[in-house]
Amino acid sequence: MTISIPPWAKGPFELLVHAEGHLRGGDDFDRRMALIGFDNAIEVGITTYLTLNPLQRGNRSYSSTDVDQWLSNYHTKLAFLEAEIAVRGCACRVDKSHIIWAHDHRNEQYHGGLKGTPEQSVLKIVRDAALWVFELLFDVTNPEDLLEQAILERSRPKPPIPDRAFDVAIDARYGVIEVGGQNYYVSEVLFAVDEAAYRDLGGRLCTSPGDSDPEESDPEAVRS
Q1: What is the mean pLDDT of residues 75-102?
Q2: pTM for this one?
């Protein structure tokens, strides 16, 4: 299933997915990376939003002077968030002072000398804040569900793909077969019904070209 978010929100969303993957990793390094990732997602989300065309942010417009001021640093970006909440009349789900507290922990991990493992309470604050900011700014109503879907899709094994060299070698030797009144390359049928046999045969034919019929002088022509 394709995850449905605005194309301009994909960068901030990828940061969320990356951070969530580390959070679920569980070890000390992963927890440190999760803290850094979620904190970055907050800042990048605000930066991305402020640099969008008004059409891409619900026709909301801001003066260039205000935008330049808000983009100055992390704290001014939070000041924009505070002002935006007031204008929209919506609730603040994560207290600004708590976000700053988590950000200070992130700075110790990223710039300072403290390399301890972030507490779960810090990780919860920064994760909740990152998801809330993403939902608020990009009008995504179900970021938790989308995040879960993205994590699941990344954990699924990728479907196997055929090998071009194997296809050529098999089809040079065995050609085309008719199934149900339709013509198929033998490599297609074998790959579909028994991938292991397909790779075994393709590998043998590629490493032992003498097994092919001597009159087959141009294997590529078979699949042209």
Answers
A1: 93
A2: 0.68
